[in-house]
Design brief:
Blueprint lengths: L1 H9 L5 H4 L9 E3 L21 E8 L2 H7 L7 E5 L4 E6 L2 E6 L7 E3 L6 E7 L12 E7 L2 E10 L9 E4 L5 E4 L5 E6 L5 E5 L4 E6 L10 E5 L19 E7 L4 E6 L4 E5 L8 E6 L1 H12 L16 E6 L10 E5 L4 E5 L12 E6 L15 E8 L2 E8 L4 E8 L13 E7 L3 E6 L11 E3 L2 E3 L3 H4 L6 E7 L2 E7 L2 H11 L6 H10 L1 H13 L5 H14 L4 E6 L3 E6 L20 E6 L2 E6 L2 H18 L4 E5 L5 E5 L3 H21 L11 H8 L4 H39 L2 H4 L5 H9 L2 H7 L1 H17 L5 H10 L6 H18 L3 H18 L5 H10 L3 H15 L4 H7 L7 H27 L31
Parallel strand pairs: 1-23
Antiparallel strand pairs: 2-32, 3-4, 4-5, 5-6, 7-8, 8-9, 9-10, 9-11, 12-13, 13-14, 14-15, 16-17, 17-18, 18-19, 20-21, 21-22, 22-23, 24-25, 25-26, 26-27, 28-31, 29-30, 31-32, 33-36, 34-35, 37-38
């Protein structure tokens, strides 16, 4: 319950629409004009020296390319292909591609005859090309669009990276029909969209098989319809497409026109269709912006000069915000937040401006942005990276606008703005593939995907990295997470023992700061010094549990003034006004325990490890090549590895820094009340708070250990092809597997875990493989789910199966004796019936007798069953009766063996009496009663 409380708490962070104070009554809002929107750096001296956007590498353009371009380098077209870590440069009809991370693998292609106008790299559609085609290179010239297949061949030299190779022949080629394409954009499903100089959106539709017309590729105008080419000469627009962006989570495509207008296309719920649903011109956008900002009070009146045209679009995925679809950024840095209608699962229906966010410079405390002209922008994880230029002083800058450095507060949209000077204008900004999409870290709720604040998923998320391409080369920048900011502060101050760190914990809330400190302390990648500092900060500023007094609303009691001569035992009429009620007001106080931030930080850290999979189903059904449905894990092996690594790190931290003791004894309610009312009540309350916190942390340790073992087991099962392990499960077990979430597997799934472990061991036995390695692995990963007794039983089964087929009688006997010895070592934790049947099949009858006798003696060490018989089987002798039936159950396996022998002898089959006397072999004083040794 405590864990789920913190999982729910993480889902209650204020959303973007809350920070913007947008309600049904308010309509559109604006921000960025108050001092609190962009605080002055001197207001937070602890963060003044922290650079949130750090340059980590700078790679120049390869010299062989510079030699070819010469002085024309500043005039050529360039771009980034971040999907394959490449940059490209077009010089007339030639294109150069190189690895921007290493500066090597320069590829040069000159097979085209016309000037290249657009370049794009797209993931191919499934089942259209051979598996060796990993990407499609799409090139648009003034006459045709051509498509090449791309393969990245791994090389042994890791410094160079993979080698890029193109197919020898062009895969597709289609004429442009007098349209110059300015932009190429692909989707995750392999669709290829092109923006034309006529302002229309086109799609290059391709397929594996030739169509009825004999073509495998065609160019379709998605803005006007299928007959658009018949009208091209009469409807040529002078407003070309400037950029195309796609929201992969909601399957929405946005087109930005050169004039600043925006078109919205719905690609369908599955991303396989396309419809234009809304369009806003630049004039309409400016008009809507002015209507919003004129409703707020400011020192001057806004006009159209404050709203330049939109020059960039940043799509917001569903987990970024359910209410906003795209952000348009103007040349002056103003961000315009648009909605596309009702939140998912509804499809987009409109494009409506809801919020205007002004850049730094409008408030008196922030840096001046509005004098710069924005050229490029990218958005990730709530942060904006913007490139600007100032032609008056020839100064180029890179801006980082983010709220990560500030605590999360409702109805407050506070951001930090930092800028750094550049030596050349930015041509392109791209995101490096260091992370999965934010939506992969989101929770699926009734309200759709909820990604939450970066604080929630930063421990599962590496720092974002961005590539800035200039005519001098590529600069790689890293955006710090909140936990990285804390690490930088401790590094700059040589530890946590300073007022700045103390204030950081206080400003962000010590619960959140303690959770961040745990990321550094539990991460095995963190250097030992930083881990030590983080651990010290955790205990230094994590506080202690305490009792707090909660003042409940005042209660007013009404006391009647009873009349003289009132007799309770007689009937009377209601009291009249002569005896009014006297109000008595009492202040009610209640004592509540407030756990320390250390306690809350630990639970927060665990909650953020498991929140992504906590309510996720264990398996999903899938169709494999044979057309049969199988179960596969809903969580990848890579993700399970990350989770178990984090859990083991937390387990090591808990084992190292908490005392090993059981839960404290809790006083009775009466004794506790007496203690609290005594003069030493405060000390008792503090002691009780510590006791309850310790009990909670003991439960946390057990939960962490058990969760790590369950997820570790699930990873082993996934490594061994889960779909094969689950084939022979019963119908009930399969239904349970389908219904269970990881929460249920962890909390109540021990029986299911045992079944799956048994299937895994049987898989090895069926293949006649040794179980030693898998048993050792299971014992290492999940010792409480797979005990040493289980490992011994698995080995016994392996030995018995080998002995059954062994032709060497001497060797067979040695194996059988070894199996019996191992059984006796772990008895009574064995499947007695299974072992006895296998020994009977091997005709080792003495082993059956030994195991049954040992099994019975260990379950009844004091021979209570014999005493139960000696005293006439008294009904009130419950222990004796239980021991008697236990031995009967064990000896029934012996009778079953004898029945089998008698049946094999060919005589008439009769059941052998299973009534045995239970006498210790070493002290048998009644020979008239048969003992186990006589049988």
């Amino acid at each position: 319950k405590m864990l789920e409380k913190f999982i729910q708490q993480d889902g209650m962070f204020p959303q973007l629409i809350d920070k913007m104070r947008i309600t049904c009554e308010s309509g559109g809002t604006a921000s960025g004009l108050d001092d609190l929107d962009y605080p002055c750096p001197t207001d937070l001296p602890s963060l003044m020296n922290i650079i949130q956007l750090k340059i980590i590498n700078k790679i120049p353009i390869p010299p062989e390319i510079l030699e070819q371009c010469g002085n024309m380098i500043a005039e050529v077209e360039m771009g980034l292909l971040t999907a394959i870590s490449r940059a490209w440069l077009v010089f007339n009809s030639d294109i150069y591609i190189w690895n921007y991370e290493t500066g090597g693998d320069v590829a040069y292609f000159d097979s085209l005859n016309d000037t290249i106008s657009a370049v794009g790299m797209v993931v191919p559609k499934r089942d259209v090309f051979q598996p060796c085609i990993q990407q499609l290179l799409v090139l648009a010239t003034i006459k045709e669009v051509v498509v090449f297949g791309v393969t990245i061949v791994e090389t042994q030299d890791q410094k160079v990276g993979g080698e890029l190779q193109l197919t020898n022949d062009i895969i597709y080629s289609i004429p442009c029909e007098n349209i110059t394409f300015t932009i190429i954009k692909g989707t995750a499903s392999g669709r290829i969209f092109l923006g034309g100089s006529d302002g229309n959106l086109y799609e290059l539709v391709y397929q594996k098989q030739a169509s009825w017309w004999g073509r495998r590729c065609k160019l379709m105008n998605r803005s006007r319809g299928v007959f658009s080419f018949l009208m091209v000469p009469f409807f040529i627009s002078d407003d070309p497409v400037a950029s195309i962006v796609v929201d992969p989570s909601r399957h929405i495509l946005y087109v930005l026109l050169n004039s600043g207008g925006i078109d919205v296309y719905d690609l369908g719920s599955k991303g396989d269709s396309v419809y234009r649903i809304a369009s806003l011109s630049h004039n309409l956008i400016v008009h809507s912006s002015l209507n919003i900002v004129r409703t707020i009070q400011y020192t001057r009146i806004f006009d159209t000069s404050d709203f330049a045209k939109v020059v960039a679009l940043c799509p917001l995925e569903e987990c970024d915000s359910a209410h906003f679809g795209v952000v348009g950024v103007t040349e002056t840095g103003v961000r315009l937040y648009f909605s596309t209608g009702s939140p998912p699962p509804h499809r987009p229906s409109c494009l409506q401006l809801l919020h205007v966010r002004f850049p730094p410079g409008y408030s008196s405390t922030s840096l001046v942005f509005k004098q710069d002209k924005l050229t490029k922008v990218i958005h990730k994880s709530g942060s904006f990276i913007m490139a600007t230029t100032n032609r008056e002083n020839c100064q180029d800058k890179i801006w980082c606008i983010s709220s990560d450095a500030y605590p999360v507060k409702p109805s407050v949209f506070t951001e930090d703005a930092q800028c750094h000077l550049l030596t050349a204008p930015v041509v392109s900004i791209g995101e490096l593939n260091t992370n999965s999409r934010i939506c992969d870290n989101a929770l699926l709720t009734e309200n759709g995907l909820v990604g939450g604040h970066l604080l929630v998923y930063q421990q599962n998320y590496h720092p974002d990295k961005f590539a800035l391409l200039t005519h001098q080369g590529v600069e790689i920048y890293e955006k710090l997470r909140p936990v990285d900011i804390l690490a930088e502060m401790m590094r700059d101050r040589n530890g946590p023992d300073c007022e700045d760190i103390k204030k950081y914990f206080a400003d962000h809330g010590s619960d959140q700061a303690c959770s961040m400190a745990l990321i550094l302390a539990c991460n095995n990648i963190t250097n030992s010094q930083m881990a030590e500092w983080a651990t010290r900060a955790f205990f230094l500023y994590g506080g202690d549990p305490r009792h707090t007094i909660q003042h409940l609303p005042q209660q007013t009691l009404l006391q009647y003034s009873l009349p003289q001569g009132f007799k309770p035992g007689t009937m009377s009429t209601p009291l009249g006004d002569k005896n009014p009620m006297t109000p008595i007001t009492r202040q009610v106080e209640a004592f509540t325990i407030e756990m320390s931030s250390k306690h809350n930080g630990l639970y927060l850290y665990l909650a953020r490890i498991v929140r992504q999979i906590w309510l996720k189903k264990l398996v999903v059904k899938t169709l494999l090549e044979d057309g049969i449905q199988y179960y596969v894990s809903s969580v990848s092996v890579k993700q399970l590895t990350e989770k178990t690594t984090q859990l083991y790190g937390l387990k090591v931290f808990l084992d190292k820094n908490t005392a090993q003791s059981g839960p404290p004894e809790i006083q009775s309610y009466h004794d506790r009340e007496m203690t609290l009312s005594s003069p030493t009540g405060m000390r008792a309350r503090i002691q009780e708070a510590h006791s309850q916190e310790k009990a909670s942390l003991d439960g946390l340790k057990s939960l962490v250990d058990h969760t790590a073992q369950v997820l570790g087991l699930w990873k082993i099962l996934s490594d061994h092809q889960l779909h094969i392990l689950t084939i022979d499960l019963t119908k009930e077990q399969k239904e349970q597997l389908e219904m269970f979430t990881f929460r249920e597997l962890i909390l109540i799934g021990r029986e299911l875990c045992s079944v799956l472990i048994s299937r895994l061991i049987n898989l090895y036995l069926d293949d006649q493989a040794s179980v030693d390695s898998i048993s050792a692995r299971l014992r290492e990963v999940c010792p409480s789910l797979y005990r040493s007794e289980d490992a011994a039983c698995s080995k016994v089964n392996e030995i018995l199966l080998k002995a059954k087929d062994d032709k060497d009688e001497e060797q067979k006997m040695l194996q059988l004796r070894q199996a019996v010895k191992m059984c006796k070592e772990v008895s009574p934790h064995i499947n007695l019936s299974s072992v006895c049947k296998q020994l009977t099949c091997c005709k080792y009858y003495e082993g059956v007798l030994e195991i049954c006798q040992d099994f019975a003696d260990k379950l009844d060490p004091h021979n209570l069953a014999q005493k139960f018989l000696d005293h006439g089987q008294l009904l009130d002798d419950t222990p004796g009766n239980s021991a008697y039936h236990t031995r009967i159950s064990a000896y029934r396996e012996v009778s079953g063996m004898l029945d089998e022998l008698y049946h094999q002898s060919g005589g008439p089959f009769t059941n052998i009496n299973t009534s045995f006397s239970f006498v210790d072999n070493s002290a048998s004083s009644q020979p008239q009663q048969p003992s186990m040794s006589n049988i």
